Fold this sequence. Notes:
CATH class: Alpha Beta
Strand order of the largest sheet: 2-1-6-5-4-3
CATH topology: Nuclear Transport Factor 2, Chain: A
Largest sheet: 6 strands, mixed
Structural class: alpha+beta
Number of domains: 1
Shape: globular
Number of strands: 6
Amino acid sequence: MDHVAVVRTYYSALDEHDYSALSDLLAPTFVHDRPDRTLDGREAFVSFMRDDRPNKRTCHELDEVYENGDGSELVVRGRLLDADGERLFDFVDVHRFEDGVVAELRTFARES
């Protein structure tokens, strides 16, 4: 699967609560650095998304996916919507790849 397909599948897995598919896209040493916390390790991240995420009834709407020259990093610009389609915040995610899976994700968010 190419890296663009991986990131699109990543957001679909989050939105559809498919945590097995989500786990398959991430390196064991995956790190997610976001404004409110850092989640260190694939299992910690998947566990948080499955069990502790404040709002699980959300949808990621993607506007743009940018790939750097060698494809090792993708930048995604979009917004997170609640169950009613209301915008919660805009985001930019930077996905860094190693061996075909996401090794690191940095999220930058701006409330609407």
